[in-house]
Structure formats: structure tokens, C-alpha cells
Design a protein that fits this description.
Order of helices and strands: HH
Number of helices: 2
Shape: flat
Strand content: under 5%
Largest sheet: none
Helix content: 55-70%
Number of strands: 0
Radius of gyration: 19 Å
Distance between the termini: 49 Å
């Protein structure tokens, strides 16, 4: 890989570099979010937790859907 010169990296190399960084950032943030489960430091309801994870799961489904290769929507009567 030509990481030393990002101007000349291929689209695949650029994808790998950016996707790895962003994925690692998300994993780190999820780990930090998990720290909020400490009941001796925080108070929360099951409803709040459910709402929080529903929002995360919705965004995850939407992001995954963007990677679907069959994007064609055909018109039918």
C-alpha cells in the first residue's frame, strides 16, 4: 500500500484507510458508551437504554444498506 503518499493511493487503498480509522473510532466510542452502564456512577431506566440502542441500531442498518450493491429501483405498474 502507498500510505506514505495519500495523493497517489488507489480508491481501494483510500477506502481501507478511511474505513479502518472510522470503524476503530466507532468501536472506541461504543466501548466508552458501555462505561455508562456503571450503576454506581449513573442512573438510567431500561426505557432510556432501549431508546439509545434503537437509535444506534437504526443508524447501523441505514449505513449497512448503503453498501448494498443492488441499488437499482425499477418502476413497475
Amino acid at each position: 500500500m502507498r500510505e506514505s503518499n495519500p495523493k497517489h493511493e488507489t480508491r481501494a487503498e483510500r477506502f481501507r484507510r478511511i474505513a479502518e480509522n472510522r470503524t476503530n473510532d466507532i468501536i472506541k466510542k461504543l466501548s466508552l458508551l458501555g462505561n455508562c452502564s456503571n450503576r454506581s456512577a449513573y442512573e438510567y431506566s431500561e426505557q432510556e437504554v432501549s431508546k439509545m440502542f434503537s437509535a444506534i441500531e437504526k443508524e447501523l442498518r441505514q449505513a449497512r444498506a448503503r453498501f448494498t450493491f443492488d441499488r437499482r429501483k425499477t418502476f413497475k405498474l
